[in-house]
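Hey, can you fold this one?
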Amino acid sequence: IDLYSFDRKLCLLALDAIERVEVSLRTRWAYVLALRYGPHAYLDAALFRKPTQHAKCLTRLQEELERNHETFVLHYKRKYSAPELPPLWGICELLTFGQLSLWFGNLAESAARVEIARPYEVDEQIISSFAHHLSYVRNVCAHHMRLWNREMTIGMKLPARPECLGEAFNPSLPKRLYNTLVMLAYMMDRISPASCWRASLLA
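Sure. Predicted structure:
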């Protein structure tokens, strides 16, 4: 029972950080794309590396919009007839973390990915991999599966020079929870420096 209670607290703590990383990343994604390419940039298949993946992501987005009754979605449908889909700052509110990681990772222009990742002071490939990994970890937590001591199905790419981040990763166990928590602590220090999340984790 003690181990179960510990795992439950660990899941809640992980979800707290993942939520903040998700909100931060989707805000950066929408902001950078809108600034560089316009408010409906996500509709332009030429901006993405894999046209088939872009088409699938767009289809999922349209399906979500059709069944969604958020106030801003209904307002957009009433007020505008074209473009049919809302701008980036509305769309990003509808994306799951998994979908967001696909949109981000599929961006064709590396300069855009670099700009999105800039505030985190980490290579954009690390951020892209971490976002994909976190979408899996979030699902583990949300579905009340055991998080502690789990061998992650979806791993993440570790920084080539972790000493630059001032964090101690464990490359010999890349799919264990430890590296996830190290990266979350690093991200939280940049997203929410006044947060006591790191102290709560250590406790």
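The chain has a mean pLDDT of 92. Let me know if you want another pass with a different chain boundary.
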